[in-house]
UniProtKB/TrEMBL annotation:
Organism of this sequence: Winogradskyella echinorum
Protein name (database record): GNAT family N-acetyltransferase
Domain N-acetyltransferase per the UniProt entry, residue ranges: 9-172
Organism taxonomic ancestry: Bacteria, Pseudomonadati, Bacteroidota, Flavobacteriia, Flavobacteriales
SUPFAM superfamilies: Acyl-CoA N-acyltransferases (Nat)
Stored Gene3D superfamilies: 3.40.630.30
Amino acid sequence: MVTLKGEHIYLRALEPEDLDFVYAIENDTSLWHLSDTQTPYSRFLIKQYLENAQQDIFEAKQLRLAICNLENKTIGLIDVFDFDIKNKRAGIGILIQNENNRNKGYGKEALQLLTNYCFSTLHLHQVYANISESNLASLKLFEANGFKKIGLKKDWSFDGDQFANEYILQRIND
């Protein structure tokens, strides 16, 4: 039995009440480099997104879940993207919004829960992540969860001043 509840956090579907949280994350320019975002999102667009967030992963090819602590406070988001049922793979991305909630094991637990869900429930063969070479915290998080670096994409992202390399990490279900 797969559970999306851990010892310190749980994962849940997005709700209309998450509008302010998602709006804050999507419009925080300091986070844009993580998702290649280049423009702000309106409340209207995010509200529409939340209204359609219940779309089945097999149709939408993605799934975004809220990461909540046991006090029911939303602290981050975790995504399955590029869901490819034919090849049994998908990408994973994670963000813990407030720096005060980082380095407490919440991200590790959320990644473990979602990876287990991908393998046990979605029956994926592999999951992967794309992480900037300079994002040492995320590299450490994914590697601690069994992901292996399988390649380095040179000059992959441009921030307006310079290019940055990006690792691709992969975990295969054994």
